[in-house]
Amino acid sequence: MWFKVKAFLKFLWHSKNQHGIHSPFVYKLITKCFYDKSQYPSYKLWNEVQQELLNSEDILEVEDVGAGSKVFNSNKRPVSKIAKHVSISRKRARLMIRLVDYLKIENALELGTSIGLGSISIAGSGQVDMKTIEACSVTLDYAQDQFEKLRLTRITSINSSFAESLAGLKSEEKFDLVFIDGHHDGKATLEYFKSLLKYKHNDALFIFDDIHWSPSMEMAWERIKTHPEVQVTIDTFQWGLVFFRKEQVKQDFIIRV
């Protein structure tokens, strides 16, 4: 707990908004996407799904194969609490919806489906072809039920470990967006990052969740920032955004969202 508090205070000290940003690409991203106040149709859909899950009385017995939970002491977890404390927040879901729209995302990959709220923020518009990978079959089945109710037929759910699934992807596949939202372990995150590089293209975006979760995750984030194929990174505290645009000057930003 205290680690994240200190990390957040450090973030606040160093972070900024659009003022003083000299990169045209990042400035436009912040002003036209991060701070966009428009009401997107997908907001309403996502809100309705979240509210249904918050009101759910279902309890799932999950298999946690990641770095463990800082919220739950048992593998028997109420869906309502997963939706409230673990899943993507409303603020972050809206940011994801805006990013998908602004960057015109067509093909996406998600590592860590959970009960599907993150998936719906990416592909809820019905315009994105997405693969989502989850090692726990119980939560994935629950998420799949949500996708079917919403008729989100362009989401492909894969029940497998991240490592096994990534090894099984076709080498010619390219993703516009990769969202890494699971197994919050620094060493594992670095391995996933390296494995995923072959599936990116120049305009791709990688998003890493919980980059300040632990010292190991912060270490992984620092290593990712210095990778020779990475050009622009944006630390929003909860998420780390990575761009590979070769035409950009290599820069790292810390931005309040």
From TrEMBL:
<protein>
    <submittedName>
        <fullName>Class I SAM-dependent methyltransferase</fullName>
    </submittedName>
</protein>
<dbReference type="InterPro" id="IPR029063">
    <property type="entry name" value="SAM-dependent_MTases_sf"/>
</dbReference>
<dbReference type="Pfam" id="PF13578">
    <property type="entry name" value="Methyltransf_24"/>
</dbReference>
<dbReference type="GO" id="GO:0008168">
    <property type="term" value="F:methyltransferase activity"/>
</dbReference>
<keyword id="KW-0489">Methyltransferase</keyword>
<keyword id="KW-0808">Transferase</keyword>
<dbReference type="GO" id="GO:0032259">
    <property type="term" value="P:methylation"/>
</dbReference>
